[in-house]
Amino acid sequence: MSQRTVKMRGAELPVAGPELHVGDTAPNFRLHQRSPEGLKDVTLDDFEGKTLILSVVPSLDTPVCEKQTIRFNDEISSLPGNIDVLTVSMDLPFAQARFCTEKSTDSIYTASDHRDANFGLAYGTLIEPLRLEARAVFIVGADKKLRYVEYVPEVTEHPNYDAVLEVAREA
Q: Taking the C-alpha atoms of 57, 83, 67 and 4 in order, what is their torsion angle to the nearest 10 degrees?
């Protein structure tokens, strides 16, 4: 059983994977994404040369996750052009695409870890008993080093948006 935990409405749940830190090399990942051509894989290498904000949420169809995703979608236009935002959840790619259409979140990307949870295991965000991602935000620099790491201790709470945006602007 994992030594790390996260709270959901006060209940502690084990989280699998390592705790990453600023300065670590960002682990690669293989996520699933719906595209106009069909389903495709997305990896860290797809964002080569960019600064990437990884916004990790349990499920897009919950209030805090919805607000977090919309907030980053709204903020991306105020950030330098070399920054992308990728929202990661266990939601199926079709559900993510539906959410993005319904909420007009067309300035960010979404990708699903549903297939094998490799992202959650690599980034330390997998809540094993629920097979959900814990809420977290990472900023990966163009050099693939982590510039910002935030594991939100209570998954029903928001990340520190101001801190994320400040680091992103400096990256």
A: 30
